[in-house]
Design goal:
about 160 residues, mainly beta, five-stranded antiparallel sheet, 8 strands, about 10% helix, DUF1203 domain-containing protein, DUF1203
Length: about 160
């Protein structure tokens, strides 16, 4: 079975956004305060606590613009946080009953037929199944409700 790892946003990119660098739409990240729960940080892959500062920004988790390079809103801690470095399912993937998993090729394009709503308890097995295929370079995990990018899954 293919061993997988959950990959968050790169730390240098998170630092740049915290310093006010423009997001994927050329805008400065918006700084706000949380009220309650439901703010998953894409750098530490944990939820941002209640009453804590966070950033909202447009994120494009692809190396270059191209037709399949989806862009969307994400949250992240406004203050420095440790980058997630685990191989188990990260905390932000435990708040929903299901997620969309989708495979991408080495050209950063969607591999058709790989996208599927996947139950939370099947995320690791589905990702390993996809990454066992030589035509799939990585997998994206997205919200099954809003299609928001959560994290990337790679071969370990």
């Amino acid at each position: 079975m293919t061993t997988i790892t959950f990959t968050p946003m790169p730390s240098d990119q998170a630092t740049s956004y915290r310093l006010g660098e423009a997001d994927a739409y050329g805008l400065a990240p918006e700084r706000r305060m949380t009220s309650g729960t439901g703010y998953p940080c894409r750098h530490c892959l944990s939820d941002i606590g209640d009453g804590k500062p966070y950033l909202t920004l447009a994120y494009r988790p692809f190396p270059a613009l191209q037709p399949y390079a989806e862009t969307g809103p994400i949250f992240m801690h406004a203050e420095e946080c440790p980058r997630y470095a685990g191989e188990s399912v990260p905390p932000i993937l435990e708040s929903s009953p299901d997620y969309i998993l989708r495979g991408y090729g080495h050209d950063d394009r969607i591999v058709y037929g790989t996208g599927a709503v996947t139950l939370r308890e099947n995320v690791e097995a589905r990702a390993a199944e996809l990454l066992a295929r030589p035509d799939i370079a990585y997998v994206h995990v997205r919200s099954a409700r809003n299609n928001c990018y959560q994290c990337r899954i790679d071969r370990a």
